[in-house]
Design a protein that fits this description.
Layout (H helix, E strand, L loop, with lengths): L2 H10 L6 H10 L3 H13 L16 E2 L6 E3 L4 E3 L2
Parallel strand pairs: 1-3
Antiparallel strand pairs: 2-3
Helix pairs in contact: 2-3
Length: 80
């Protein structure tokens, strides 16, 4: 799924998303790169993702196949 498609799904369904549960699932994945992407996506959708901020990777990770924009906070390279 590309960044814009993932963001569109999140925004359209934000009222039905339990942010705490979503972050807990992200933590269970035991992937710092996944937490970077999840935090980035959650904040773009207007959700608070500060709980996972200390667990993210310090390396930049790609979100989608294209893009050269960099989100410094979540350390994500994206096209959005």
């Amino acid at each position: 799924m590309y960044t814009d498609e993932a963001l569109e799904v999140a925004v359209e369904n934000i009222s039905g998303i339990d942010a705490d549960k979503l972050m807990e699932y992200g933590i269970r994945m035991k992937s710092r790169a996944a937490l970077n992407r999840l935090g980035f996506l959650m904040e773009k959708a207007g959700m608070n993702a500060e709980k996972i901020m200390p667990l993210k990777s310090e390396r930049y990770v790609k979100f989608g196949h294209e893009g050269d924009k960099r989100d410094r906070k979540w350390r994500v390279i994206h096209a959005y």
